[in-house]
Q: What sequence folds into this?
């Protein structure tokens, strides 16, 4: 059995937005704080060797894509938010081989104390 080193990845951690998602109508009106982590796996060796952004991803563009999905849409489920972000990033950034998106909703309305609810979605390029 060969040991394979894990594929290099870039992580953007705890991107924070205020958005209007949720099952209840009030959540679409009032809104809530959401946090997103994006873990993007791809070989960025050439970018690292040559210190060249053209062979990797531009973090600002990834941030803007995530921001637009969260703030320009209204979803019932954070599962749908995570899925949509992953699908759009895989589509828009061909260099990405696989991606894991985590979406956290702070203080979800569950009738008790809870720091956050989190949906995690992983997808690979087909």
A:
């Amino acid at each position: 059995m060969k040991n394979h080193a894990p594929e290099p990845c870039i992580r953007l951690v705890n991107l924070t937005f205020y958005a209007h998602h949720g099952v209840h109508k009030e959540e679409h009106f009032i809104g809530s704080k959401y946090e997103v982590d994006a873990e993007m796996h791809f070989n960025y060796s050439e970018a690292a060797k040559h210190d060249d952004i053209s062979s990797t991803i531009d973090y600002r563009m990834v941030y803007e894509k995530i921001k637009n999905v969260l703030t320009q849409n209204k979803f019932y489920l954070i599962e749908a938010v995570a899925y949509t972000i992953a699908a759009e990033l895989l589509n828009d950034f061909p260099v990405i081989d696989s991606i894991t998106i985590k979406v956290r909703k702070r203080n979800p309305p569950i009738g008790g104390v809870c720091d956050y609810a989190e949906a995690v979605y992983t997808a690979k390029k087909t």
Observations:
- The first helix runs from residue 25 to 30.
